[in-house]
Amino acid sequence: AAPLVMFVAALRAALHPSGRRVTVDVTVGDAAYDLGRLSAVADAVVVMAYDQHHGGSAPGPIAARSWVDAQLDAALARVDPDRLVVALGGYCYDWASSDAPTRSMTMPEGFALAALVGAQPQTDPASANLRWQYRDGAIDHEVWCLDAAAGADTLALLAARGLDRTALWRAGGEDPSWWATLAADGPAARTRALES
Fold it and tell me: I need a labelling partner for 184 at 20 to 30 A (CA). Which of 13, 76, 141, 191 fits?
C-alpha cells in the first residue's frame, strides 16, 4: 500500500500545477489500498460499491443493500467524506450451472436476454438487486443486475449519510432509466422517474 500512496502523492504534485486532479478507484477491505493515506494524498477516493458477487464468484447480488451499507461505513471510517466518491454499477452477470465462464452484460443486453428467454426479472427484496433465472437446454442460469431501481436504492443510502458524489461503472451500458433517476431530486422524484 505504501508504494501506491507515494505514487499517488507524486502524481498529484506533478499534475496539480497544470490544473489536473488525481483520483484513485479502490475496493474497501483490500489490503492493497490504505484508504486513510490515499484519502490524504488523492483529490478523490472512488469506492467501487459493486462486485460483491462477480465473474469469479458464486452467483449472488452484485451490490446488496446491506453489503453497500457496510462498504460505506468502512469507507467513511477512513476516507475524508469531502474526498469520497461512490461508484455504482449498472450491468448484469449471468452465471451458468456448467463450467462456462460467467457472462458480463450491459443492462440493455440483460433486458433483451430476459425477453428472449421469457424470464420475468424481479427485484430481490433482501438485496434490492434485479434477479431472474432461466434454463438453456440442460444448463440452469442465474442472472443478477444493477438496474436504475437498485441505483435509486443506493442513492438513498448515500443521501442518508450526506454523500452526493457518485460515479457509474459501465457508462453506456446502464439501464436507460438511470439518468432520469440520477437527476431526480429525492426519493419521491426518483420513484416517479422509475415509473415513467
Answer: 76
